[in-house]
Amino acid sequence: MTRLTRRSALRSAAAAVAGVVLLRKGAGPAEAAAAAASASQPSGSAQLPGVIGDALARNAAAIAPITIRWTSRARSMTELEELARSINADNERADRMFNDYRHYRLTFQDGKYRASHQEEPREPHDVPYISESAFDGEFTYGGTLRPPEDGRVQTMYLKTPIGNYKPQEQDGRYLSADPFDEMAIRLPVRIGDLRAKSPVRSEILYMLEQGATLAGVHDVELEGRKMVKLRIHADDPEALAARVDVDEVRKELTGLTTQAEIDRVIEELKRNRGYPTKRLFIFYLEPALNYAVRRREEFWEPDILLARVDNDGYEKLGERDVFVLRKSVFSAYNRKPVPAGKDATLVQTRTMEVTQVSGDPKPPQTFALSYNEPGTHVYINDEKGKQTSYIVQDDGTLLDSRRRPRRSPTTR
Predict the structure, then answer these.
(1) First-to-last CA distance in the chain?
(2) Among 325, 317, 366, which residue's Cα sits nearest to residue 66?
(3) What tens digit of pLDDT does each residue of 136-183 get?
(4) Per-residue pLDDT tens digits for 251-288
(5) How far apart, in whole angstroms, are the C-alpha atoms of residue 358 and residue 64?
(6) How far apart are CA 308 and CA 311, in angstroms?
(7) Residue among 180, 162, 185 nearest 172 (CA)
(8) 180-217 burial, b for 16+ CB within 10 Å, e for fewer?
(9) Considering the entire predicted model, what is its pTM?
């Protein structure tokens, strides 16, 4: 979800020249507010009612501090052999890629974060490694906690000043924030946001500020609940991402993965360049939950359904006037036109279940990785980009890996 376009919202806003709005019979409060606001707007555009915009802004501002744990389970509807052929991989690798099951944890507070994820074991004796990332206000961290192999410690972490990242890396983020993405809450965890110390934002408000077009505001019912339906046109995020320099992507991936994987990524980028440049986002907001997102749908117009997200089980975050989802189901479709009376073909689902939420603040040391297991490799980048490698000693101190390790004291 990123940027959007401009379009007509209310067919009933007729006498805009005189500043008079004619509402169709039975219009709900959201439609009435949007129509009244659009009377002063240029012809062909709608305006978000103030009560909704204010609620979305308050929800974003009230979400932190927060610590949240969740599981994510993906399931592909395509035969495993076909998936493997599509990425030039064996069945096991394709299964892990398209049918993954992971555990996540994220703490966000005062513009800082600490996040981790780990795969669910597939075999009784599997010990999946833990990947972590963090930002303490000055440095980013990336770490891996692995079990020893052949008696050698595999755990490591990297520490980098936030100012070291290049301009083309400003949109990058190195963690999953899925529960917030599905609630349309934009955590400032991208590199550019971290550097700018950006606040938490409503994704919907951010989209509109970036040039998106609000095409309609309607009062509707969804599964027996009263909702406000927003229609927003935006630039297609996949088409935008495909504008990168293919040669630069190939260069960056060389040595990091297999040639088959590099070729797959390049072909996908080339394919995405043929996608429509615009996408329609539809949000269903529930007034009873301070306009929390109950459903999001994405289309290529006129009627090609790309994805749908359904959120459920919202609960209040402590004493704050904001609600956090407990379950979210993302469904992806095959991106083909659907004959009248038929449903779009489902190709993959991802079910996310929140297992724990806390609004308690954390101490500052939470947001810096520091692994003290002797033998751990630590890589620290300075402000000029020079990297020095260290090894954690028995007493917990760091020793430059180019020097001989200290001997443990002995007695005679």
Answers:
(1) 68
(2) 317
(3) 999 999 999 998 888 888 999 999 999 999 998 999 999 999 999 999
(4) 878 877 778 778 878 888 887 787 899 999 999 999 99
(5) 10
(6) 10
(7) 162
(8) bbbbbbbbbbbbebbeeebebbbbbbbbbeeebbbbbb
(9) 0.82
Using CA atoms, how far apart are residues 168 and 164, in angstroms rounded to an integer?
12
CA 223 to chain centre: 26
Q: How far apart (Å, rounded) are the C-alpha atoms in residues 59 and 321?
A: 7
d(CA 390, CA 376): 8
How many other C-beta atoms are found inside a 10 Å radius of the C-beta of residue 355?
12
Give me the residue label for tokens 């999953």.
176
Phi and psi at 101, nearest 5°, equal -140, 115
How many residues in total does the chain contain?
412
d(CA 349, CA 307): 10
Distance between CA atoms of 106 and 191, rounded to whole angstroms?
17
In whole angstroms, what is the distance from residue 398 CA to residue 378 CA? 8
Amino acid sitting at position 52 = I
How far is residue 115's CA from residue 178's CA, in Å, rounded to a whole number?
Answer: 12
Place of tokens 């009435």: 32
Place of tokens 């001989």: 404
Quote the CA–CA distance of 54 and 62 in Å, as a whole number.
12
The token duo for 14 is 């007729």
